[in-house]
């Protein structure tokens, strides 16, 4: 029973922070997992006893070892605080991680401080129950791409099973609208992802390098050679953009700007033939207009499409098929493949939902930061008036996190608080820009992770279409 509680706590932590673990420092992952393992004891669900501490792999058990003694004191302090006022589980979890981190960061400064770091690290390597618990964490930390592939294989297996089970096909018939909507949204999501990636290529593989070549054109003859090379890259991007338009999954209004890219291509081609500097400026102007407007618009459409793809509802509809898996004549391997795929699809749905929600929250913060940033040069009134609400909006997104980026955000927020209190305009503007840059960098990472997940949903599209055809 004790081991199951510890495993459940680790599972919850990994499910919540698994995507962050992919880019977190090893020390941050270590602290989060150790904190999760100790949480049932800190909450009072498990007793602070020798057997429990030994099962956790703490050095020497009760009364011995820095980590075991600290945990005993921590639990005692939490009991006092909870007796005086309500303390939430998230608050206790954050306190656990913060204190563990404080001890970890002392590491390397002498005998006792080095011992702290060693005990925290070795806790994850001890034999016994903790190894079993960590194997659960390792299983959960499979990549989203593997989940998508497994879900696709499961849907493919369902198609085979339905061919042998008319009852299963009839049971799923009532959910054909859900399957049809999912098929459409997977295509829409894939095309918005393609548009976003092609705009990225247009920025870095064409526009940026064309700008550099333009500075040397026409005086430097090698600039014309470079422009001819960049023209080939632009032709490739334009071909792929037109392919997205041909598929017609996204709204026509969201691809109308491709005509500007085509115009820039035609002008750049004439530049290579006529060495006309004016035409080069026109091509650059067209590309700049596209890149100033479209990436943000397409990114907004992409997140909206991800939000509309209700994978949990699709997984629930597919769950109806489970009632018919015991029918005679069904391939046992296909049944297992479908069940594994259904679990992967549900996991993928939870990841997508969590990332969309996280993205929406950070986007709200980013919009507000951009608004304030545009107004702080004349005077600081806008920042002074907006900061309390802005901080209340942003702080929950990083305050309880143990990753390095979150700690840096907290420090930048404290510096901004201090600068505002001191009424120092120079330090206030500097502190705000540091905070804004930190937030912007993390929002870029959040945005990148969501786009990556959206791109990995392709494997479920084709088998989902097959299932839809079978039940129509």
Low-confidence runs (pLDDT<50, min 5 residues)? 59-63, 127-143
Number of domains: 3
What order do the helices and strands follow?
HHHHHHHHHHHHHHHHHHH
Radius of gyration over C-alpha positions, nearest whole angstrom: 28 Å
- Determine the structural class based on helices, strands and strand pairing: mainly alpha
- Overall pLDDT metric: 79
Annotation field: number of helices: 19
Shape: flat
Q: Into which percentage range does the β-strand content fall?
A: under 5%
Percent of residues in helices comes to over 70%
Major sheet description: none
Give the number of DSSP strands. 0
Distance between the termini: 48 Å
How would you describe this structure in keywords?
single chain, 472 residues, 3 domains, 79% helix, flat
Secondary structure layout:
Layout: H1 2-21, H2 26-42, H3 50-56, H4 66-84, H5 89-105, H6 111-122, H7 129-140, H8 144-164, H9 166-173, H10 176-214, H11 221-247, H12 258-274, H13 277-308, H14 311-318, H15 332-373, H16 381-394, H17 404-422, H18 425-455, H19 461-471
Helix pairs in contact: 1-2, 1-7, 2-5, 5-6, 8-9, 8-15, 8-19, 10-11, 10-13, 10-19, 11-12, 12-13, 14-15, 15-16, 15-18, 17-18
């Amino acid at each position: 029973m004790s081991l199951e509680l510890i495993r459940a706590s680790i599972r919850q932590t990994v499910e919540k922070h698994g995507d962050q673990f992919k880019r977190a420092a090893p020390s941050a992952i270590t602290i989060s997992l150790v904190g999760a393992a100790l949480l049932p004891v800190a909450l009072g669900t498990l007793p602070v006893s020798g057997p429990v501490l030994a099962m956790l792999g703490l050095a020497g058990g009760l009364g011995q070892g820095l980590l075991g003694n600290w945990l005993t004191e921590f639990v005692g302090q939490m009991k006092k605080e909870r007796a005086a006022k309500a303390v939430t589980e998230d608050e206790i979890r954050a306190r656990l991680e913060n204190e563990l981190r404080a001890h970890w960061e002392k590491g390397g400064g002498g005998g006792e401080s080095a011992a702290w770091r060693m005990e925290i690290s070795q806790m994850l390597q001890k034999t016994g129950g903790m190894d079993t618990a960590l194997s659960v964490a390792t299983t959960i930390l499979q990549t989203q791409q593997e989940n998508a592939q497994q879900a696709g294989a499961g849907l493919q297996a369902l198609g085979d099973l339905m061919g042998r089970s008319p009852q299963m096909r009839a049971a799923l018939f009532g959910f054909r609208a859900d399957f049809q909507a999912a098929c459409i949204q997977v295509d829409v999501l894939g095309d918005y992802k393609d548009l976003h990636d092609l705009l990225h290529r247009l920025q870095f593989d064409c526009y940026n390098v064309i700008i550099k070549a333009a500075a040397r054109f026409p005086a430097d003859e090698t600039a014309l050679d470079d422009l001819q090379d960049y023209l080939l890259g632009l032709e490739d991007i334009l071909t792929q953009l037109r392919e997205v338009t041909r598929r017609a999954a996204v709204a026509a209004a969201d691809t109308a700007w491709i005509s500007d890219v085509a115009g820039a291509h035609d002008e750049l081609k004439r530049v290579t033939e006529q060495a006309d500097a004016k035409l080069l400026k026109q091509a650059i102007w067209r590309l700049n207009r596209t890149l100033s407007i479209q990436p943000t618009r397409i990114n907004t459409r992409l997140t909206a499409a991800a939000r509309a793809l209700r994978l949990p509802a699709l997984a629930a509809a597919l769950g109806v098929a489970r009632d018919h898996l015991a029918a005679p004549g069904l391939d046992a391997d296909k049944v297992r493949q479908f069940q594994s795929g259904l679990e992967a699809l549900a996991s993928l749905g939870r990841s997508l939902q969590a990332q969309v929600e996280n993205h929406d929250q950070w986007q709200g913060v980013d919009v507000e930061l951009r608004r304030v940033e545009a107004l702080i040069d004349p005077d600081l009134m806008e920042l002074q008036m907006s900061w309390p609400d802005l901080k209340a909006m942003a702080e929950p997104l990083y305050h309880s996190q143990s990753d390095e980026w979150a700690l840096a955000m907290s420090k930048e927020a404290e510096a901004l608080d201090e600068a505002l209190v001191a009424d120092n305009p120079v330090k206030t503007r500097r502190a705000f820009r540091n905070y804004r840059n930190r937030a912007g960098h993390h929002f870029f990472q959040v945005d990148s992770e969501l786009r990556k997940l959206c791109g990995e949903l392709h494997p479920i599209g084709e088998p989902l279409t097959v299932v839809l055809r079978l039940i129509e």
